[in-house]
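Form 7-S
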Amino acid sequence: MAVEITWWGHATCTVEDSNVRVLTDPLFARRLAHLRRRRGAVPPPGAWRADVAVVSHLHADHLHVPSLARLARGTRLLVPRGALRAVPGLRRLAHLQVSEMAPGDVTTVGDLSVRAVPARHDGRRLPVGPRRAPALGYVIEGEARTYFAGDTGLFDAMAKEVGPVDVALLPVGGWGPYLGEGHLDAGRAAEALTRLAPRSAVPVHYGTYWPIGMDAVRPHEFHAPGEEFVRLAAARAPGVSVHRLAHGERVRPEVTR
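Output:
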């Protein structure tokens, strides 16, 4: 096995490579402020197990302190530089080994390396106040190279900054009916495939959480992005194998190195 990907919903995935488990943007809540989990069970305790967890940016649906508190003692946690200052709750997670990352930084865990790469997204904890931490993506490299994009828009240097990858975990939606600047929708994610040219891709960040009381507001924006990404990827990047997973489903993408 080169790499195994499990999608738990939203931006939360387990990447298993080289006998190391990496957990992305852990979110184990049934409800988060005005958001309710509308599809897929809350990830079971087995999903909480990781050797290292990565956080892409400070928004509460990506850096969720109560979910991080469930990680086992000694788990390494990689967060954007400035996160410890901007999110005081992180400093109470004394059972975790927290390291701040900036683009270009690399952390080694066993035979695996985790490299922080830039993302184009507003990474602040709140929509007002100083920009204290960058939004990041991560390239997880062991037997395969897996790119977890976090939240990002397209940017000119994407292919150069991310580098060659085998698998891309790309956001294709959001948690509401509108996506602002600094996001990928299904079409922009398909365009990202043409730039990154991975062998495989998994759409994430859609079809999990939806605002309470907005069931009738453009519901196709909740249900459709995964299928739309599959369709557009087939047209624009036919050489990429797209794996649209159900919540809790896993896949072992083919990797040729």
